[in-house]
Design goal:
The chain is mainly α. The chain has 6 helices and 3 strands, in the order αβαββαααα. β2 and β3 form a beta hairpin. It is globular.
Length: about 140
């Protein structure tokens, strides 16, 4: 699936997300720039485990950053439907972060936010949760 296809899936999930949230702006970044932004965050995110992430800007708007190269690395051996579901799952994961309004300033805050989102994903989107768990192995 090319960047345009990934973008369509991401935007479709955002438009159809059932929770009331401020819709994030989506930006695709090349891996080098994506890695630079991750490095600037003091939360110790791992580039090889992070195909997208959400930040809240200083003016309170949300940005969803996606790295096509990392998505492709994760899904290189997946059939097309599984790739689509993976993109849905990572997008839903990030939208749940927005919905929760957890302000993350420390590693402990980040851990709490991740655990909360995992619980919600497991409860509300069990098949998407299972796919992300499969990818962790």
């Amino acid at each position: 699936m090319e960047k345009e296809g990934i973008a369509l899936v991401v935007h479709d999930i955002i438009l159809n997300f059932p929770k009331r949230i401020e819709k994030p702006k989506v930006k695709f970044l090349p891996k080098k720039r994506f890695a630079k932004i991750l490095d600037l965050m003091e939360l110790k995110k791992h580039l090889d485990k992070t195909p997208c992430f959400t930040i809240q800007t200083h003016n309170g708007k949300h940005m969803l950053y996606v790295c096509e190269e990392i998505v492709q690395e994760f899904t290189k051996n997946f059939p097309e439907e599984k790739k689509k579901k993976f993109i849905e799952a990572i997008t839903i994961h990030e939208l749940l972060h927005i919905w929760n309004h957890c302000h993350v300033h420390t590693a402990d805050d980040a851990l709490f936010s991740e655990q909360l989102v995992e619980k919600e994903l497991r409860n509300f989107y069990p098949s998407h949760y299972a796919l992300l768990e499969e990818c962790k192995r």
